[in-house]
Write a structure and sequence with these properties.
With 247 residues, this protein is an alpha/beta fold. The chain has 11 helices and 9 strands. The chain has helices at 10-17, 20-27, 64-81, 102-108, 126-132, 148-159, 171-174, 200-203, 207-225, 227-230, 237-245; strands at residues 2-7, 32-37, 50-51, 61-62, 89-99, 113-118, 135-138, 192-193, 196-197. The strands form 3 sheets. It has a 5-stranded parallel beta sheet, with helices on both faces. Bound molecules: adenine (ADE). Residues 93-95, 138-140, 142-144, 147, 150 line the site of adenine.
Length: 247
């Protein structure tokens, strides 16, 4: 997977993503992160990329021309780096977009190329958005100062679904949000800490019982903490019986 990020702060993107699991995945060539500076495409002699909004109002608006020329450059990079001739999706980070979630992360992880457009100031001239953007995405109902953090959040969440990125291929399958369930609690050594003991079943070595306990914990946690998700869980007969007995 090749990620292309159109931004005014390329260092923020590169520094934010070159550590830990994503950094290792880059070293292993499982993915590439390419941050492209929109300012490099301005034709303004003062290198401005923004101007006052027509109609007045607070703040500045990013101009169409540098964003569009940056995008055209990204298109040539994609064509040079990839055999896939399908037009890459262009994701615009905006609080008015569709809310990002685990299903979207999984779906996007199957693309060969993804382009992120990070806005700043009060927004970007709508004409260029209409020309290039395929998806408008928000990471939640709050307003950030720019699209860089959302792009990094999404790249992290998407990358975890690319085969080989996580050491253990099953760990993306059993974690929180899979099947609309929250993940069960985890414990490690020591067996007793501050007087608190690890649940006996986890020390039993009995795999079927451990699986059962984990499923039950996931069900209880999801019912209590995320009733919205719990409504969507496909409950088995055993699940229903357990939940009935543990109201
Ligand atoms: N830009 C500013 N706030 C944002 C948000 N919540 N999600 C995505 N992009 C944003």
């Amino acid at each position: 997977m090749n990620f292309y990020i159109m931004t005014l702060f390329p260092d923020m993107i590169m520094n934010g993503l070159n550590t830990s699991i994503i950094g290792k995945a880059m070293e292993k060539n499982l993915l590439s992160i390419n941050a492209i500076d929109i300012r490099d495409f301005t034709t303004d002699k003062h290198r401005h990329v923004d101007d006052y909004p027509y109609g007045g109002g607070a703040g500045m608006v990013m101009q169409a021309q540098p964003v569009y020329d940056c995008y055209k450059h990204v298109e040539t990079l994609i064509n040079e780096n990839s055999e896939n001739t399908k037009k890459a999706r262009v994701l615009f980070m905006t609080p008015t977009g569709r809310t990002f979630n685990q299903d979207m992360a999984k779906e996007l992880s199957t693309e060969d190329n993804l382009v992120f457009l990070c806005g700043h100031y009060e927004g970007i001239d709508k004409r260029v958005l209409d020309k290039i953007v395929t998806d408008e995405v928000s990471i939640g109902d709050f307003v950030l100062t720019g699209g860089e953090l959302p792009a990094m959040v999404m790249i992290d969440a998407i990358s975890r679904h690319i085969p080989g990125v996580l050491n253990n291929d099953v760990s993306a399958e059993t974690e929180t949000f899979t099947d609309n369930l929250l993940e069960y609690p985890q414990y490690t050594r020591p067996e007793v800490w501050e007087g608190e003991k690890v649940p006996d079943v986890l020390l039993s070595g009995h795999h079927a019982n451990i699986e059962k306990w984990r499923r039950e914990q996931s069900l209880l946690l999801t019912r209590e903490l995320r009733p919205d998700l719990f409504e969507k869980v496909e409950l088995t007969k055993k699940d229903k019986k357990f939940l009935e007995e543990n109201k």
